Amino acid sequence: MELNEILSELNLLFRRVLANKAVELKMDTTAKDVDGWDSLNHMFLISSIEEHYKIRFALKEIIKLKNVEDMCRIVQSKINS
Amino acid sequence: MKPHTIALFEKTFKTFANSIAFCINEQYISYRELAQHIAGVQLKITKLNPASNKIGILTDNSIETYAAILGVWISGKTFVPMNPDNPVKRNLEILSDAGITVILSRDPIVDEELRRNREIICIDALKSDKEINFNLSNIEETAYILFTSGSTGKPKGVQISWKNLDAFVESYFDIGFQLTHNDRFLQMFDFSFDGSIMSFLPALCTGACSFTISTSELKFMEVIRILEEKEITTALIVPSVLTFLKPYFNEIHLEKFRYCIVGAEASYNATIGLWKDCIPNAEIYNFYGPTESTVFCLFYHFDPSQNKNKSYNGMMCLGRPIKNMEVYICNPENNEFLSANTRGEIVISGRQLTKGYLNNPEKNREAFFSVKNGKSEKRFYKTGDEGLCDEEGDFYYCGRIDNQVQIQGFRVELSEIEYPVREYFKIDALVAIEKKDKNQNSEIYLFVENFKGDTNDIMTHLKKSIPSYMLPSGIINLPKLPLNPNGKIDRKVLSGLLEKQRD
Predict the structure, then answer these.
(1) Pairing with A18, which of A60, B33, B56, B120 sits 20 to 30 Å away (CA)?
(2) pTM exceeds cut of 0.80
(3) Which of A38, A60, A61, A70 is the best mutation test for B, with the most CBs of B within 10 A?
(4) Is B306 part of any domain?
(5) Half-sphere CA count of B187, side-chain side, radius 13 A
(6) Is A39 on the interface with B (CB under 8 A)?
């Protein structure tokens, strides 16, 4: 799966979890750029991504996520492995 | 006379000059370097000789902020924290209530209203090679004033004196923590919450290092990163962090953790029992206390063998009073003391008890009462928390008597959320209701009756009026709000609606 495809799917997940239709994710988007993307919602986002792709993040991987691109890359590596 | 806590700082700076005092954003700052920052602040304050002894600090996660706090204290002045992310209106209320004429800030203050008639000192480049003068003759009685949520929409300033703070330090070390300059503390709190005091002050008293965390959006992720990478030994952690980390407990193993204190919210024994396995070498304590008691007044030592731990509705026992405090259960209506195992209001007294709220005689009359015993008189503070004390003298938290809730460790008066909406939109029928999410974290929903406008406008106005942690998770517009037999808005029915929504 291409990174851009994952990005657009994550965009839909973010909109749903944050109940905000205006979310427009880019590769370099960070929590600072998105209203409501705080610690608690971060965990809801992670679990909805895990559910959607049937994957599981390790805590160490979650800690290292700096932006949306990191998320997309880790999803990509997990679904392709 | 020099406060005992200041004397401890003095000893630390002399003994541990080359040790690391703070690690902030991966920058390590020694006590020697910290002393240079403090001396710079002290020189500036002394030169300025401000009209008011209360100094406002726009705090952030920087060495300059910590140096400013210590510089203000060592200059004999009172520290009043303000969060730069607060709405300007809230910081203006703090400035005006405390009569602040000098603000210390790292960033330039652009807002004209905040600047008006006030001296702004930029603390970014303040450093001096001169020694800190620890021997000031005029020490202001009050060490700090923390502004907490108030029911009239105006924050209340809790005044904590040096006597209170010295008593806190004594009580803290009396618990038996064997801390040394090799310990590593975690400081994850904003300065408007007194958990911050407990997270960095004991480190300064022992020559240890504090690892701080910025108030970023993903703060809880930072907490676990710092706990692991920096091998933290001592930390105050709010239970919501643990709830958040719970799905990953099997991946966490913090061998170096020695003292884990939980507090600021109710902790559940079941969660703590699981957390214990992540920190096999740590002792776990539950601390309880409102800001008015200078951080804490009760403590409970969690026993790792599960079945021995006391709880109430699954919430960890609050334990017994610390060295300098007394705690009782009272009838909230007439302040009569109640016997063991009877639910009532938790009331507290002792050396750590605040002298009261700044410029707020009405609230002081409501929240404090005195009991005469012969010639002496003892003051008590009514916490608004419902609790009970068992026959062995252990206290338990049962819930809130009034409408205050705890959000991310902050105490929030629900009426403070209602107030700006009521004032601005001229509507009376509205109510803020707490809801626990599936992880037992508090969320707030605002119900409004027959609101003709766009509820987004209410949220926009709230964002300008109250700190972000107080913002409701949702605004619900109903044609009619339910009333109870007394004609008051029926909070229970609305709570029920929110519960149903969750199901």
Answers:
(1) A60
(2) yes
(3) A38
(4) no
(5) 31
(6) yes
